Amino acid sequence: MKFQHLLFYLIIIISASSCIGDDIVFDTIDPEVRIMNPVDTIGLGETYQFKFDYFNNVGQQVSDQAGVWTSSNPDIISIDANGLATAIQVGNSEIQVETEADGFTITDTYIVAVGENTVVTVQERSGSIRTTSSYALEGDFTLSESESGIELSFENNYNASTALPGLYVYLTNNPNTTSGALEIGRVETFSGIHTYQIENAGVNDYSHVLYFCKPFNVKVGDGQIQ
Amino acid sequence: MQNERLKYIFLFFIQIIFISNIVAGPWPVPKGKAYYKLSEWWLVFDQHYTDAGQIDPNVTTGIYTTAFYGEYGLTDRLTAIAYAPLLVRNTMNNLVSNTTSEVLVEGDAINTVGDIDLGIKYGLTKVGASVPISATLMLGIPTGETSGGRQGNLQTGDGEFNQLVQVDIGTGFSIGKTSAYASAYTGFNNRTNDFSDEFRYGIEGGVNLLNKKLWLIGRLFGVESFKNGATAESVTSTSIFANNSEFTSYSLEAAVYITDKVGVSANIASAFRGEIIAASPSYSVGVFWDLKK
Q1: Does residue A194 belong to any structural domain of this protein?
Q2: What is the ipTM, given to two decimal places?
Q3: Could you list the mean pLDDT of each consecutive 10-residue stretch along chain A, which spans 226 residues?
Q4: Which of A56, A141, A171, B266 has the fewest CB neighbours in a 10 Å radius?
Q5: Is-contact B76 B28, C-beta < 8 A?
Q6: What is the span of the domain harbouring residue A69?
C-alpha cells in the first residue's frame, strides 16, 4: 500500500469521526408556580384579579396549568376559583395559589391587606450574582419596573472577568441553560454601576439573572432574583 | 473589522500545531534539498484553562486540520518554510436537554482553508558548525475564516497578520552508538489588530533508534503573552474574541522511515498549564518526504 493511500484512508477515518455530537445539559429544575401580579392592598369592597404562571421542570411556562386559589382569611378577602379576590373587611389575608406538578403540590403565597384604596406598589426585586465557574463574577443587582418594561441595575460591587470572549447576560427561569432565556445583551461593563433597560418584560417574569459565554455556551454565573 | 481583532480560545491552540511542526532546530536545509510533510492534526476538547489557570468546561469543540508543511533549501544557509492548513474543519456539538432530550442549541461546523505561514530560516553559523545557530522569520497570513457558522463563532483563522522572529541553537551528539540531538529556541511574535504580542520558547531533543529508522522526539515549549492587546473591556464592538492566551506544553513524536526518504510520523501534544486555551491533548499523524539526503 502506498503511503499516499495510507494517509488518504487515515484522513477518511478521522473526518468520519469529526461529526457534530451531542453534549448533555443537566437542565432539570424544581417546577415553580408564581403569582405574577401581586398587590399590597385591595380597597374595601373592591375586587382584584390575581394571575399566576406555572413553570415546569425545565423552566418553561405552561399556559394551561390548573391552579387552586385560597385565602387564609376568607372573611377579610375572599377569592374564587379564577383568582378574583374581593375585599370584605379591613385586615390581612394570605392569598395562595396551588398546583400539582409531577405528583407534588407546589404553592406561591402573598400577604394582602384590605384598606381604603387598592395599592399596587412599584415592583422591585433584588439579588446577588455569583460565579459558577473559575471566572470572576460578583455583585448585587436590583430589578425594577420602568416606563417601557423593566430595568436591571448593578451596584458598585459588581465585577466580571474581561478574559472571556462573548460574555452575555440573560434573564431566565432556568439557570442551567440559555434555552428559553431572554438575552439582554453582550456585557460591555465589567465593573461598577450600570443599568440595562429591558422592554416588554415584567419584574416577575424571570427567576434568575444568568451570565453565559455565548460563543462556547459556557455558564459563567447566575443570581437568583429574590 | 473590530470583531476580527481578537482570537477564539480554541483557535489559539492551533498555534501548537504549527509550533510542533516547525520546531525543526537550527539546521538549514542544504541548497536544492527539501523536506515535506502532509499531516492530519486534530483536537477535541470540552474543557479549557481559564484566565486564572483553572480548568472549566465548555461545549465540545473539534478542530481537524489537513496541512502541508515544507522546507526548501534556497542556499546552504537559507531555507524557505511554508505551513499551509489546506482544510480546517471546526465543529461544535449540539446541546441536548437531559430532561426533555430536545436540542437546546444546535451544533455547527465549517470547513475552510486555515491561516498560512510563510518564512525563511537563515544559518547564522557556517555549515557544519558543531553548535549551529539560525534565525527564522515567519509571517502569518490571515487566510482563514474569522467568524463562520450560524452564530459567527466558528473560526479557522485569526484575521491578523503576525511576524515571528525566532533564534534556534542546537547540537548533534552520540549516546553510545545512538545518534541524538538537542536544540532550543526563543522568539518574539509581533501581532497586529490589537492582539497581544508573544514571547515564545522551547527545547527539543531527539534520539535515533532502530538503525536510524526511528526518531523519537520530545519537546517542551510555550507562549507567554505580553498582555498588551485588547480585552473584552477595551473592545467596544460586539466582539466575541479572547486575547492574552498563553501556555506551556509538551509534545512527543515518533517518526519512522519506511524508505530512505519517506516515512510516517505520529505526535501528541498537550498543555499542562495555560490561560484561555483548550485543556485537552491534540494528536497528529502524517507522511513525510525527507529529501535532504
Answers
A1: yes
A2: 0.83
A3: 63 67 94 92 95 94 91 96 95 95 90 92 89 95 91 96 87 94 93 94 93 87 95
A4: B266
A5: yes
A6: 32-115
